[in-house]
Amino acid sequence: MCLYRALRLVVAGGDNDGIFAVLTSSERYQLAVNICRSIPYYLKTVPGFLISRLMFSLRVAFDTFSEGMIEREFIQQMFGYIGEKYRFRVFANQCSESSTAVRARPTTVLEYIKHRMYLHLYNHRSRMPSERKEPSHDDLAQDVEHVGEASTRLLCASGHVCLLTSCIFRRRHVKCDETPIACKNCHSAGWKCDGYDENRLPHLSGGSCTNKNITATIIRSEPSFSLHLNTTPLPGGNSNERRGFVYFQFWTVPKMSSFFDTHLWHNLVLPMSHSERAVTHAVIALGALHEDIEARGVPLSRAELTNHRQRFALEQYTRALSLLSSHRHVNDPKLRGVVLTCCLLFVMFELLRGLYDEAFVHLQQGLSLVKAFKEVDTQPQSPLVLESSKYIETALSDAMMRLHLQSGFFGADISDPQLTRSRIDDYQGFNSIIEAREELDIVFQPVSRFMDAVRQLASEPRPPDSNITRLDVTRMQVCLRIELARYLHRLNRFESRMQKSLDRKSQRAIDLIRLHHKTFSLVLETYIDIEDMTYDVHIDGFREMVLLSERITNSFDERSDPNNNSSRPTFLLDMGILPPLLYVCLTSPCVYTRRQALRCLRAWPHREGPWDSNLVALMGTITLQVEIEAEFKRLSTIKTIRKTKVSSVRDITYIPPPSRIICVNMTMDDNQKTAVLKYNTKERGSGMPQLERRVLVDEVSWI
């Protein structure tokens, strides 16, 4: 702190009444040079939060010296060195990339400068006061030259790597060479070395300056920087792990909660990650993988073992699994929350990788643990411990239940009666948005069962254990219509009462609830049969769903540049606009509405739980291509092209029932490069073998 104040006073001219007021400009000039020379010596003892202040003073001193002066060149070297060591790229840019000080290893340069400062202080203090003198201009030029030479490794007579005439190994015995996995120098000398991580994260332009107590993270969000300062000790054994944790805390968690506020992450997961190593490594793995996806522009999920970030994330994921294995058979209520938390993080990690089978295996295991814990809770326990564990398990089980209901669209079994949420017979107005959301989640369960009943009714041959009749489906449809109408009435009352106090995020949440309600209502009316003109009656409903989705998407960009989409979240836990837009792309008879939905999907690449916007857009595009080709072929067969003025597939604007496809599903091959769309037509019937359309993902022509 004294160094910072001294340099600031010297360069700024000092205070009028203080000691620096009597100095001449040349004396102040020389003193500033000496202080700048001593900065590298103090770097190992200066706290991290003072580094930025020192850099500010160094920048002022840099501007004080004129172009071409040797002092200015020396400070340029210091800019590059300190910027590289502490990941402050904003300051590192002050030094050219060709500078030898930047290419030199930071530890090597620091050792040399520290050694030079020891000699300088010893010579200075050993002289009489009358004989003392400050280093000359030539001494400073020599230092600059030696800083560049420090990047060149020289061998002494002992065969060790040395700096100039000073052998580091002779002075410090053996110096660890920081080789990944294990240090060669330590092992050759007989010392035990734990080594360093094999997989390390690459340096980013908006990296992070971290130590164990204070972290200043700069996350690039064009066109500006967001600076987050954390003053609490961070979990993680090295800078890469702390970087992954900070990314998760300050970027992943806020983005995942962009739709609805939740206490799950801030009040449960983050505090637990400071005390449980398994949760720590799981959080770091998810943060590192999320960082990699955002850095690559949110592409289609593919396993790339050559990717440094993915390998680092997999390494952290493996560590979390190994640490969690010791808690598998533990019935301690305090550790049950740890197991469920890791299970939820594993599900999200695998979903982010695009491995749905592995993710749903973790999800089913987590739900099995929830059911097992409920049986254990029947035994007498401490009321305080029981209440705390129930709070944690309820928050985690609610998040898993939402993912469980969505997994039904990906082929998972959601018929377990023990995994259903009880319905609340309360027809009063909602008290909060969270309450409205929870009520809609309860409605989502019977809607999913209705869709499953319709599929069983239409399947040929019928499943042997299925006893669903047309009357049962009709009764379910009528009951759900009444329930959705009551829900809409309660939602309208709540919004009218809270209209003046709603902020942008609350309004976005209500719009999302309305979008889901509209989707459920259209599913009830259009999911049963496609032989009639039911879809034509609800064309306006499909268009309203697309407009609501666009409104939700644009709500993230109102405070930023219209051409900049960096403010939109790329990874959310909650179901958002993707399932409604997919239903529009698969069922709307209006080609223009479908293309509008596809544009909305491609404008916002992101993931919502198990839903991937890239896969949804791909499935919608291939489906539309198949149906347009079928309609063009149908018109060509009945020879009405001249009457309808349809000369190519681009002229098709309406998809009638005869040209629509049914039983649509899409799969990806193991390398995520080929998509296979399986479907059937009304003429063939659902009992016939499905037709296939194979396309290369990278060569898809978007409509």
From TrEMBL:
Any single Pfam family the record assigns to this protein: Fungal_trans_2
Protein's UniProt keywords contain Transmembrane helix: no
InterPro entries: Fun_TF, Transcr_Regulatory_Proteins, Zn2Cys6_DnaBD
Keywords: DNA-binding, Metal-binding, Nucleus, Transcription, Transcription regulation, Zinc
Gene Ontology terms, MF aspect: DNA binding; DNA-binding transcription factor activity, RNA polymerase II-specific; zinc ion binding
CDD domains, sorted: GAL4 (cd00067)
Spans traversing the lipid bilayer: none
Name the record gives this protein: Putative transcriptional regulatory protein C15D4.02
Organism: Talaromyces marneffei PM1
